[in-house]
Amino acid sequence: MALIREKRLTQVNLSLHVPSRAPFQLEAAAAPRRCQPPPLTSSTTTPASRSSQFRLADFERVAVLGRGNSGTVYKVRHRETCALYALKLQHAGDAAAAEADLLGRVASPYVVRCHAVLALESASGDAALLLELADGGSLDGVMRRHGGAFPEEAVAEVAAQALSALAHLHARRVAHLDVKPANLLATTDGDVKVADLGIARVVAAPFAAAGAGTAAYMSPERFDPEAHGGGCGDPFAADVWGLGVTVLELAVGRYPLLLAGQRPSWAALMCAICFGEQPAALVADGEASLELRGFVAACLRKDYRKRASVAELLAHPFVAGRDVAASRRALRRLVAEASSPPSS
Ligand SMILES: Nc1ncnc2c1ncn2[C@@H]1O[C@H](COP(=O)(O)OP(=O)(O)OP(=O)(O)O)[C@@H](O)[C@H]1O
C-alpha cells in the first residue's frame, strides 16, 4: 500500500507527495469570490457516474476535519459554486473504490452521501472520496467539545437515527462493522449520519466473525465466537453491539466498558467486553431512565443470538416512545453549541 506523507498544514499549498511520483495538490482557500449556485446531482446518480464532473483542482482546502487510519478528511470548497464538501484522501485507492462502491448502493438521509471518487495525479492509484459535509463533525468530537455526557433526549435521537441507518444498510445486506461515536456524524440541523464504510461489507454467508474493526466497539463473538453464541457470529448483531456501546458512551460521557483512566489495551478490552459485568449495569440507578438502561441491555447481550435486532430496537420505548420534536431540538442545540467558537 502506498504511503502518502502529509506536509505541514500551515503551508499555503497543501502538497501531498508520493515518492518518485507526480505530486497532487489541494490548494488552501483564497479570498472569497462570487459563486454560482451548486449544480448538485440527483440522489439517484451513482458516485462513479458523477466522478467525471469533478477534479481535485476544482476544490480548495478549508480545514482538516479529521484523521483516521485510512487517511485524512478535509473540509473543501468547490471553487465555482462555493459548495462545501468533505474530501477523504485515502492512502489506498482500492479501499476508496470499495467504500465508494458500498456508499453507491445506499441512498439514505442517515448515511453520509458520496458524490464522487476523484482520481489523484499519482501512479499509486490513490483516490479521494468527495462526501457530503456533516457540519457538526463526529459525535466523539461533539462529546469532547460539549465536555461530557449528552442529555438523554439527545441520546435517544442519536439512537433513533443511527438505527434508521442500520435498517437501511442491513436491508441491503451491508454490515457496517465499525459503529462508534467517531463514525456517527452530526449536523447543526440535528441530523445524524453514519459514515466510514471502510471495513463494511456485503454479507454473504458464511460470515467470518473475526477481523478488523475498532476493538473497543467489537462484540464478544468477534473476539471469541465459540464462547458467545457459536458459529460464525452475525455481522448485523455486531453492529447492534457497536450501537449499544456508543449509546452508553454518549449517556455517561466516556468510554463505558473500562474504568476511568484504565489503559485501553487489547487484553483489557477483550476481558471487559467478553467477561465484564452486564454493561447496562454500569449506569447506576437514577442516573439513567429505565428505558435507556433497557435499550442498552438489549443491545449488549453477550450471546449475539439473544441480542435485539434493529427492528426490535426501533420499536423499543427508548426510541419509539421519545418526544421526537424535543429530542431533535436537544440534539440540535447540543451540536450547535459544540460547533460554535467559544466566546471571548
Ligand atoms: N463527511 C464528513 N463530514 C464531516 N466530518 C467528517 C466527514 N467524514 C469524516 N469526517 C471526520 O473525519 C474523521 C475520520 O473520518 P473516517 O472515519 O471516515 O476516516 P477513517 O480513516 O476511515 O477512520 P478510521 O480510523 O475510524 O477507520 C471522522 O471521525 C470525522 O471527524
TrEMBL record:
Q: Which residues form the Protein kinase domain?
A: 59-319
Q: Which UniProt keywords apply?
A: ATP-binding, Nucleotide-binding
Q: Name one Pfam family in it.
A: Pkinase
**Which Gene3D superfamilies is this protein grouped with?**
Phosphorylase Kinase, domain 1, Transferase(Phosphotransferase) domain 1
Q: What is this protein called?
A: Protein kinase domain-containing protein
Recorded hits in InterPro entries, A to Z, give: Kinase-like_dom_sf (IPR011009), Prot_kinase_dom (IPR000719), Protein_kinase_ATP_BS (IPR017441), Ser_Thr_kinase (IPR053235)
Choose one Gene Ontology CC annotation of this protein and give it: cytoplasm
Q: Which PROSITE patterns match?
A: PROTEIN_KINASE_ATP, PROTEIN_KINASE_DOM
